[in-house]
Amino acid sequence: MQQITLLTSDTMAEIFGDELLEQGAVSVTYLDAGDNPIFEPEINRMPLWQQTYVIALFMEEQNVPELLSSLQSTLGLNSFPEYKIETVPEKDWERVWMDEFKPIRFGERLWICPSWCDVPDPTAVNLLLDPGLAFGTGTHPTTALCLEWLATHDVLNKTVIDYGCGSGILGIAAAKLGARKIWAVDIHPQALEATLANATQNDVCDTLEILYPSDLPEHIHCELLVANILAEPLRQLASHFAERVIPGGKLILSGILREQAPTIIDCYRPWFNMAEPVYAEDWCLLSGSRLL
C-alpha cells in the first residue's frame, strides 16, 4: 500500500479528502497537525484543526506523482501543500480494527461485548455492541462513566429517558439491567437507526421507544434521565430535564470536561440535589436527585 500524507488547513482538508477518494483512495483519515483539541464542534460540522494532516491510502499500482499533479490541476492550485509518500505493509485491516475492541466489564455484572468475541461470562448481563458510526461503544470515558453508574445502581422496573442516545448503548444497558421502559431520543437519524439495530440485536425492542426529542410526548416523565451529550446543550436543557424527572428521580449527566463541571452543577441546583462529580481522565459524570 502507498500512503500519502498532506499538511493543509482546516478549510481545505475536506476538499482534499473528497478529491483523494474520487481518485481511488482506499481510505482517508484526518489527524491534528498541532495540539488543538476540539471538544465541542459546531452542529453538523466535521471537527477539523487549523493545521490538519490528510492521510490517504492507495494500492501499490497507483501512480501517485501523476495523481497529485492531476489533483493540483483539478483544484486550480498555484502550489501544492507539503506532503510525503510512504510504503506501508499490507495488513488485514479489518482484523486489525476488530482486534482493537475487546469485551469490557462495568461493575460486577455488566459486559459490553463486540459480536465477534466470545461472551466472557454467560451468566452476566451481556450487551452485544459493535463499533459503528453513531457515538457510544463504551470505550470513551464519558460513556464508561455512565455505564459504571448504571451497573452499580438499581434501575429495575424504572422508566428511563436516554437523551442523546447515539448508539443506544445506555438505554439498552438500562433495559438489560431490568428497566421497565426506555425512551431513547436523539436529533440525528443515523443515531436512531443505530439504536434500533442495536436494540434488535440485544432483543430489547419491546422495551425501547426510539424517537426525536420533539416527538417525546409531553406527558412522559421518568425515574431516571441519562444524557451523555455536551456541556452547552446540557446547560440549555436544565429546566426541560427538571420537568421530565419525577420528584426523587435520578439524573445522570456526562460529556462534561472537568473545568465545566461547576457551571453545569450550578445550572441544575435549582431542581436537583447534586452529588460530587465522578472523574475519568479529563471528563466527569454528574448525578443528582430531583428535589421533592
Walkthrough of the structure:
- With 292 residues, the chain is an alpha/beta fold.
- It has 2 domains: 2-90, Alpha-Beta Plaits (2-Layer Sandwich); 135-290, 3-Layer(aba) Sandwich (Rossmann fold).
- It has helices at residues 10-22, 64-74, 93-99, 141-151, 169-176, 189-201, 231-236, 238-244, 261-268; strands at residues 2-9, 27-32, 51-58, 83-87, 104-106, 110-113, 125-128, 159-163, 181-185, 208-211, 222-228, 245-257, 272-274, 278-280, 283-290.
- Strand 9, helix 6 (189-201) and strand 10 (208-211) form a beta-alpha-beta unit.
- The relative contact order is 0.10.
- Mean pLDDT is 86; it is low at 35-48.
Helices and strands in order, then pairings?
Elements: E1 2-9, H1 10-22, E2 27-32, E3 51-58, H2 64-74, E4 83-87, H3 93-99, E5 104-106, E6 110-113, E7 125-128, H4 141-151, E8 159-163, H5 169-176, E9 181-185, H6 189-201, E10 208-211, E11 222-228, H7 231-236, H8 238-244, E12 245-257, H9 261-268, E13 272-274, E14 278-280, E15 283-290
Helix pairs in contact: 4-5
Quick structural gist:
By secondary structure, the chain is α/β, with parallel strands linked by helices. It contains nine helices and 15 strands. Helix content is 29%, strand content 29%.
Question: What keywords describe this structure?
Answer:
Alpha-Beta Plaits; Rossmann fold; 2 domains; 9 helices; alpha/beta; 292 residues
